[in-house]
């Protein structure tokens, strides 16, 4: 279904964020991406923003609003990892990951919600991870920041659900990216043994779920966590 609604995807210059932006462009949405460096895919408006800096986000939103119109769909995708075991994890390792992955989502969604409230329509889609609920050794900072998005979306649903605004979480599992391609083959095989589907996802498979959540077909879904993980995290 084609639409010309305005979408903003944070971290839309690479990986899952880029695939999401490409999918929205293909469906006819007016699509903007934030990036600290690099460019979004063809057909998108790229705006510079650092999700840990509210002023830079405000400027980015203002640019999108002037060029494309008010943001109606926001996809909070920007995220970082600083993996290490708990006893080796520094305060900065923890604080910086939480500031980007959770704090960044807060800043982006707060700024986006103003336009959504005026329009009495909006879609908030938070990109989490299977490890948010499944857990992962060496990722206490990352998994904590990603599981927190569930409480965020559900509280937002209770606040704004009556205004035709939905808030949902997409939890990808292992995705075919440059990062997973660099893993040793025996490591990849070990991961795949734990995934009932027996393979990694493509970024486009995640993007398809995100664009569906933004559509009218998903108007009555809010506060949900949708796993795209081939069955890895079942029951978590």
UniProtKB/TrEMBL annotation:
Alphabetized UniProt keyword annotations: Oxidoreductase
Domain Ketoreductase per the UniProt entry, residue ranges: 5-178
EC number(s) reported in the record: 1.1.1.100
Entry superkingdom: Bacteria
PANTHER family tied to this protein: 3-OXOACYL-(ACYL-CARRIER-PROTEIN) REDUCTASE (PTHR42879), 3-OXOACYL-[ACYL-CARRIER-PROTEIN] REDUCTASE FABG (PTHR42879:SF2)
Family: Belongs to the short-chain dehydrogenases/reductases (SDR) family.
Name of protein: 3-oxoacyl-ACP reductase FabG
Organism expressing this protein natively: Microbacterium memoriense
Gene this protein is translated from: fabG
């Amino acid at each position: 279904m084609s639409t010309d609604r305005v979408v903003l995807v944070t971290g839309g210059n690479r990986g899952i964020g880029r695939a999401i932006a490409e999918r929205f462009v293909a469906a006819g949405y007016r699509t903007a991406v934030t990036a600290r460096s690099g460019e979004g895919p063809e057909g998108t408006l790229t705006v510079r923003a650092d999700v840990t800096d509210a002023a830079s986000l405000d400027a980015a939103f203002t640019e999108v609003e002037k060029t494309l119109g008010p943001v109606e769909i926001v996809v909070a995708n920007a995220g970082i990892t600083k993996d290490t075991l708990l006893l080796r994890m520094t305060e900065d390792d923890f604080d910086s990951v939480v500031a980007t992955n959770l704090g960044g989502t807060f800043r982006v969604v707060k700024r986006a919600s103003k336009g959504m409230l005026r329009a009495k329509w909006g879609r908030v889609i938070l990109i989490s991870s299977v490890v948010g609920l499944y857990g992962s050794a060496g990722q206490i900072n990352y998994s904590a920041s990603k599981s927190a998005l569930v409480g965020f979306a559900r509280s937002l649903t209770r606040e704004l659900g009556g205004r035709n605004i939905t808030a949902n979480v997409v939890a990808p599992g292992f995705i075919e990216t440059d990062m997973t391609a660099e893993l040793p083959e025996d490591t990849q095989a070990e991961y795949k043994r734990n995934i009932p589907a027996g393979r990694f996802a493509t970024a486009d498979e995640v993007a398809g779920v995100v664009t569906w959540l933004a559509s009218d077909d998903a108007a009555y879904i809010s506060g949900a966590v949708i796993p795209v993980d081939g069955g890895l995290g079942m029951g978590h």
